[in-house]
Design brief:
Layout lengths: L1 H16 L6 H10 L4 H25 L5 H8 L2 H10 L4 H24 L18 H14 L4 H10 L5 H25 L7 H24 L6 H18 L1
Helix pairs in contact: 1-2, 1-10, 2-3, 2-6, 2-11, 3-9, 3-10, 4-9, 5-7, 5-9, 6-11, 7-9, 8-9
Membrane topology: Multi-pass membrane protein
Subcellular location: Cell membrane; Membrane
Protein name: Probable membrane transporter protein
Length: 247
């Protein structure tokens, strides 16, 4: 089982990191389909997010596609709310209900970008628009903490709909957003004593996503366009989300 998951996690990390994402939504979808314990799922997905987007943040910053001031402004409210969301007590049934909703919404966002977003140009008058995204960041932070998803999969289409920045800069901003929210989520789990780490299960998966993430982030910072990532992964996420809601 772990071998198959390692291969799939590697591919997901490669694809998602090329778009500035950590892959948490797909990691959770796969582990849910494999029947992994829900607490282990949350901790492992967040750890994999952290190791993927850490490399992504570095490469996007070095390539000039991570405006740090905007990244900090977008994350200012979301980080404490991710901690709160992770700290909230959740029963297993409630977790899978929320996760099913979160995955289904993520897949719909990805399908929108794939089928309806024909062209994208940033709004040149965007200097003050970051403040109106504060409430959105707060809500995404709560959801990311509760489910173990870093939140970039929701932030990216919102920023693109608002034409907030260039596509590459949005990918860099999402990498940073996912990193700090994932760390906050792990701290929230640790604070209530529910962080679950199984070395024989998590370490091979983390190694797989490190390798995949490094390859993907280098490809994105260089020449790869991230648009097709949604098409590769949306069906998997949609299937897992609908399946959880159905059961």
């Amino acid at each position: 089982m772990v071998i198959e998951l390692c291969l799939l996690f590697f591919l997901i990390a490669l694809l998602y990191s090329s778009a500035g994402f950590g892959g948490g939504s797909s990691y959770l979808a796969l582990m849910a389909l494999w029947g992994i314990d829900f607490q282990l799922m949350k901790s492992t997905a967040l750890l994999c997010n952290v190791v993927v987007v850490t490399g992504g943040v570095y490469h996007f910053y070095r390539s000039g596609h991570l405006p740090l001031k905007r990244a900090l402004q977008l994350s200012l409210v979301s980080v404490p709310m991710a901690f709160v969301g992770s700290y909230l007590p959740l029963k297993q049934a409630t977790f899978f209900l929320l996760l099913g909703i979160a995955l289904t919404l993520a897949a719909l966002f990805m399908c929108y970008r794939l089928f309806f977003e024909k062209s994208y140009m940033p709004d040149p008058d965007r200097s003050q628009k970051v403040y109106k995204y504060g409430i959105t960041g707060m809500l995404i932070g709560v959801l990311s903490g509760m489910t173990g998803i870093g939140g970039g999969i929701y932030l990216a289409p919102i920023l693109r709909l608002g034409r907030y920045d260039t596509a590459k800069n949005i990918a860099g901003l999402c990498s940073f957003f996912i990193l700090v929210n994932s760390i906050a989520g792990l701290l929230g789990q640790a604070a209530k004593g529910e962080i679950v780490f199984s070395p024989h299960f998590a370490l091979p998966l983390m190694l797989s996503v490190i390798v995949g993430g490094q390859i993907g982030s280098r490809m994105s910072a260089g020449w790869l366009k991230p648009r097709w990532v949604e098409g590769v992964t949306a069906l998997l996420i949609l299937y897992a989300g609908v399946r959880m809601l159905w059961h």
